[in-house]
Amino acid sequence: MGALASTLGVRPSIFSDYAYGPDFNTFTPTPTFWSELSASGAQLMLSVGNVTPAEATAIGTTLVAHGFGNAILRIMWEMNGNWFPWGTQAMTASQYVATYRAAYSAFAAVPGANFQYVWSVNAGTAEPGRTEFDTYPGDAYVTNIGFDFYDYNSGTHTGVSDSAVPPVIAFAASQGKPVSIDEWGLNGFDDPAFIDYVASVVDNPANNVAFQVYFDADASIITQYPLSASEFTKDFAG
Fold it and tell me: How far apart are CA 8 and CA 19, in angstroms?
């Protein structure tokens, strides 16, 4: 679980995982998972889909039972896209908000729970009929305003502000919420300037970034990109 962090010379404080199934609505890890997660000392961020209140209660109860009542819950992320069952093709903004709030209420009612809640957009995406922020469920239901952000600039980042990121930071500031970068990664290019750009966003106190989580899978596996891996260590170690 900590192998990548060790390779890059960084200390992980958050481990990101996903609920199971096509709707991301169940979570029953093995005993090995729980023991390794506990040994790592990392906080768990769990992404869940359009869970029913009963499914949220079951997941929340499992988390508390294994000592992770402080988990960060990312409910129905990237909802401003059309690739998940809760996306623009499946839910109106009002339907999304109602589903999110019902899940939040069920999670919050679990005895022993002290969860945090991330509402997380895909930075820069606005499908027809949906703005980037019209599914915001309200300040009472959100701890952090998060975003997912991948390197789609064909390796041409120069470290200047990417147009997708400042609007999310501005929206979070308008709601008085900290920012989290819940998924970010490379996308087939060894692009150390992209790593530097994200580091500059994280390191700027004005952005109020609570945490960042690199998505080390598929085309984003950072050890495939030696220049970027080295830059990640330089920017995030310590």
Answer: 27
3-state secondary structure (DSSP) of residue 177: coil
Q: CATH number, domain at 211?
A: 3.20.20.80
Residue appearing with tokens 């402080």: 70
Domain holding 191, by residue range, is 3-236
Per-residue pLDDT tens over the stretch 208-238? 999 999 998 888 899 999 999 999 999 988 6
- Going from the C-alpha of 142 to that of each of 48, 59, 112, 175, 200, the distances in angstroms are 15, 18, 19, 10, 25
Both structure tokens of 50? 């359009």
* DSSP string for 4-61: HHHHHT---SEEEEE-BTTTT-B----HHHHHHHHHHTPEEEEEE-S--HHHHHHHHH
Counted domains in the chain: 1
- Residues 62, 27 contacting (CB under 8 angstroms): yes
pLDDT of residue 4: 62
